[in-house]
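FYI - complex with adenosine monophosphate, inputs then prediction.
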Amino acid sequence: MVDPLNEAEKNNVTFSSLGLSEPLVKAATEQLYTRPYPIQRDAIPSILRGKDILGIAKTGSGKTASFVLPILELFHRTKETSGRYASVLVLVPTRELAGQVADVFQTLGAHLFPKVKTVAVYGGVAINPQMRAVYGADIIVATPGRLLDLISQNALRLSDVEILVLDEADKMLELGFADEMSKLFTLLPKKRQTILFSATLGDAIQDINATLLRTPIKIEVAEEETNLDLIEQLAYKVDAERKGPLLRYLIKTEKMKQVLVFVSSTRTADNLVVKLTKNGIQAAAIHGQKGQNIRTEVLQKFKAGQLTVMVATDLLARGIDIQLLPYVINFDLPRSPKDYVHRIGRTGRAEAKGKAYSLITPDDEHHFKIIQKKMGKRVEQVDTTEVDLKGY
Ligand code: AMP
């Protein structure tokens, strides 16, 4: 049973109440992180206290910021940056993840002074620039093989590492990095803090846990499954030029108060907002070409119910965390079925039913069939040829 008091307390948790300083709270807010995710609520204070962490969490849980924020906070508190060799090492399975995690360190550390230097190193590209870049870096995000190469070429030592993060440890093992990892572990100082994230807790991960971690705090994040049964999906068949009027018709006739509309381009987003506004519907867009402050403001207004329609591109929608959104409309279909489920999953959470509508042009029909097949659910189609859209 849900303890209401406890729930209320959890909802009051802010990034500052978890122990983060102003420059980090500011950066998190700019990224539209309004409230800490559960994993962040659990991990941030423990990491700040120097505890080892065993985290069972997948991508999408907010695990990256759950270790990036407290690590940056520790730099901020000591005002010390590393010497020649990095004091934080993050091991990741792939080149893409290395780049992504390093980016998160940079973005969330944007307001820190002194600056914290993060460098990503991975295989498949020339080693020389990386040999130079790691010199004097505070944080190194690396794939295991390339890190060993850099060490064997004397570009780097692990002797100063105080915090070790193993991100997606199960994937590292899956990709055959076990030997490289064991070798790296022998090169690390014994006295250090270790943070391990894995999507699953298999035997190999248990072994790493037993040998590397000291009485870790275990954090497990249950994945929030998109419950398709809670979402009423409808597909409106419509010609491309009638999409705009149909959207306004739906918003008005269903008296929607809060609707998130997805589009595929920045231009469509801006056009829609102009037309909606002309029709007396309060709307604003968030997309990559809007400044950070505007995005934050729009999102806040939308959440507060002061804005009927928020138009978003997928990219910007990733960070949007709104519970109990009543309506999602796909003005344009997303390319991947996964994105489709992700988009409509913003409605129909917990016990509240939500509605997800998609506008399907003749050109979209084939693609929409694929989406339905992948999703494993058929969506009822509504023919709109007879709908009179005059005046919308
Ligand atoms: P991750 O699980 O680390 O891959 O993060 C998943 C996504 O959630 C990323 O796009 C983050 O930018 C976003 N995110 C992380 N923490 C928060 C938060 N507290 N509020 C909103 N979005 C977040």
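The chain has 16 helices and 14 strands. The domain at 228-383 is CATH 3.40.50.300 (Rossmann fold).
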